[in-house]
Amino acid sequence: MDKLYKPLVICGPSGVGKTVLAKHLMKTTTFKDLLQFSVSSTTRAPRANETHGKDYHFVTKEEFDREIEKGKFLEFNHVHGNYYGTHIEAVNHIRETQKRICLLDIDVQGALNVIDYRQLQCNFVFI
């Protein structure tokens, strides 16, 4: 895979501003045509300003567990009583089909899991 399309992982603890930075990068003229945000899955309920499929894929714990069993996640974690995870197929779709850099917004534990996933090399920004 062309190094141009190496995923960019923005990582840090909860509440540090990862999503704010990711959204800013997506709006910046320099990067908006190069980056595509990866939408994670979660078992938590949507917040008032969130849209299914745009901010997260909101799923039940049973659905999330089935995806874990099938090995569908690049990374997943249990945080504050809910599961969060990134599908490897979503990352590959952005890289291979859309020819863009996949932008991931994940916590520290998720980033460590991405590092351990040897089939995918990424660039990391820790906040």
For the largest sheet, list the strands in their spatial order: 2-7-1-8
Beta-strand residue percentage:
25-35%
For the residues shown, what is the average pLDDT?
91
Overall, the morphology is globular
Question: Which key phrases capture this entry?
Answer:
alpha/beta, Rossmann fold, 127 residues, globular, four-stranded parallel sheet, 27% strand
Short description:
With 127 residues, the chain is of the alpha/beta class. It is built from 4 helices and 8 strands.
Description:
- This protein has 127 residues and is α/β, with parallel strands linked by helices.
- The chain is built from four helices and eight strands.
- It has helices spanning 18-27, 61-69, 88-96, 108-116, and strands spanning 8-11, 35-37, 41-42, 57-58, 73-79, 82-87, 101-106, 123-126.
- The strands form two sheets. It has a four-stranded parallel β-sheet, with helices on both faces. Strands 4-3-6-5 form a four-stranded mixed β-sheet.
- A hairpin with a 2-residue loop joins strand 5 (73-79) and strand 6.
- The model has no long low-confidence stretch (mean pLDDT 91).
Q: What is the secondary structure topology, with strand pairs?
A:
Layout: E1 8-11, H1 18-27, E2 35-37, E3 41-42, E4 57-58, H2 61-69, E5 73-79, E6 82-87, H3 88-96, E7 101-106, H4 108-116, E8 123-126
Parallel strand pairs: 1-7, 1-8, 2-7, 3-4
Antiparallel strand pairs: 3-6, 5-6
